[in-house]
Amino acid sequence: MSGMKYPETLEDIIEALRRLPGVGRRTAERMALAMLKWRSDKLETLGELLQHLPQTVTFCPECGNLAQHGEKCLICQSPSRNSELLCVVEEFSQVVSIENSASFKGVYHVLGGKISPLDNRGAEDLRLDILMRRIGRGQIEEIILAMSPDVEGQATAIYIADLLQDKGLKISRLARGLPAGADLSYADAATIGAALEGRTQI
Ligand SMILES: [Zn+2]
Fold first, then answer.
1. How many domains is the chain built from?
2. Are residues 131 and 72 in the same domain?
C-alpha cells in the first residue's frame, strides 16, 4: 500500500494497533499520531497497563468470567446476585452480552468453548469438572443452558443436560428466537431478554 511512511518507531506502533479488530491502516495512523501528542506520564500509564495485562486480568476461578489478580469476578462477589440460578455459556463474551441486556440476575458458568469434533474439542476441554463441583455444593436450583443455536452448541447442551439428569435440578434452555447459527455474543438486548424470559424446561 502506498502513502506516507512514518519514522520506524511510529510505523511499529501503527502496525501493532492494526492487529486490533476493526482497526485499519488509517485508524491506526490516527491513533498513533494522537498518542504522539500525549504527555509522557499518560503514555507510561498505558504502557504499564498493557505490560501487566496478562497478570492483572485473569479468569474467575469460580465461573471462568473475566476477573482481576486471580480473584473471583465481580458477579460472583456480588451479594445481590441470585446464586441459585446458574446460566451456562460458552464464552465470557456471552456473559458480557447477557449482562448488557440487564435481563439476568443469577450467576454464570463459562465453559470455555463447546463440543466440536471437527476442531478436536471434546467435553474434557470444557470447564465441566468445576461446574459439577459447584453443583455439588447444593446451592444451585436451576441451570439455564444458554448455548449457541448451532449444531455444536446444541450438542453441548444435550451433553450437559444428560450429565445433570439425576441431580434434582431444574434445567432449562433458551427460548427459540435467536436466529439459527447466531452467536449469543452478537444478539441484541431485547432478543436475549426474550430468550431468557421464555426459557423452556428440559
Ligand atoms: Zn465469577
1. 2
2. yes
Task: Give the domain range for residue 40.
Answer: 8-51
Helix (H) or strand (E) holding 136, with range, is helix 128-136
Could you report the per-residue pLDDT of 9-65, keeping only the tens digit for each?
Answer: 999 999 999 999 999 999 999 999 999 999 999 999 999 999 999 999 999 999 999
Q: Record the pTM.
A: 0.81
Q: How many CA atoms lie within 13 A of 150 on its CB side?
A: 11
Q: Residue 18's pLDDT is what? A: 97
Q: Is the CB of residue 35 less than 8 Å from the CB of residue 13? A: yes
The CATH code of the domain that includes 134 is 3.40.1360.10
74 Cα to the center of ligand 1, angstroms: 7
Q: Are residues 104 and 146 in the same domain?
A: yes
Cα 150 to ligand 1 centroid, rounded to whole Å: 26
> What is the 190 CA–ligand 1 centroid distance (Å)?
24
Tell me which residue of 103, 32, 93 sits closest to 66, measured CA to CA: 93
- CA–centroid distance, 66 to ligand 1, in Å, is 7
